[in-house]
Amino acid sequence: MSRPRTRIQRKNSETILEAALEVFSAHGFRGATLDQIAEVAGLSKPNLLYYFPSKEAIHTELLTGLLDTWLDPLRAMDPEGDPLAEIMAYVSRKLEMSRDYPRESRLFANDILQGAPFMRAAIEGELTALVTEKSQVLQRWMDEGRIAALPPAHLIFSIWALTQHYADFDVQVRAVLGEGHDPFAEATDYLETLFAKLLALPRETG
């Protein structure tokens, strides 16, 4: 049975993970090195290896914790709530995550772009199960005539694409908009309008 970690050990582990998040989100897994992570953490490489045996171990630890956080906004969609309000709240939560956790978003995106070597099992398991569950909720709302009929999984994909873009392509977004623009405030208004129109029931004619 392993002994509980001391306060110093917990603090150093957290420092290493924070440094690794900075390095991995900037350089990707392949471009990052243990030397870079140790330098950002302010620790020696041997000290870092005392806590984590490899770069892979650090990366896996980060992504494991990230997935749970990443799925929380979708988990919060209430099957008994108002459909439009629940979807809009999900869009808002995802956009807030892009604003507040841009490095985490890029870390996740980098792994996906590399073929998900670290996240494949979680994507094919927990993430897919949750998307399937919420797609069934969306489909029920559509079948009940409460929102427009759309492919549910693709609706979720669209929300991911239109919110996470602001984290993954932050430099591009800010360069195009220029100074004096708050991309997240502007995106909130735009996405609310976009999805309200997309989900609106077609008007009867005649």
From TrEMBL:
GO terms for biological process: negative regulation of DNA-templated transcription. Residues 33-52 bind DNA. The keyword Repressor does not apply. Residues 10-70 form the HTH tetR-type domain. Keywords: DNA-binding. It comes from the Bacteria. PROSITE patterns: HTH_TETR_2 (PS50977). GO terms for molecular function: DNA-binding transcription factor activity; transcription cis-regulatory region binding. This is TetR family transcriptional regulator C-terminal domain-containing protein. It comes from Szabonella alba. The lineage of its organism: Bacteria, Pseudomonadati, Pseudomonadota, Alphaproteobacteria, Rhodobacterales.
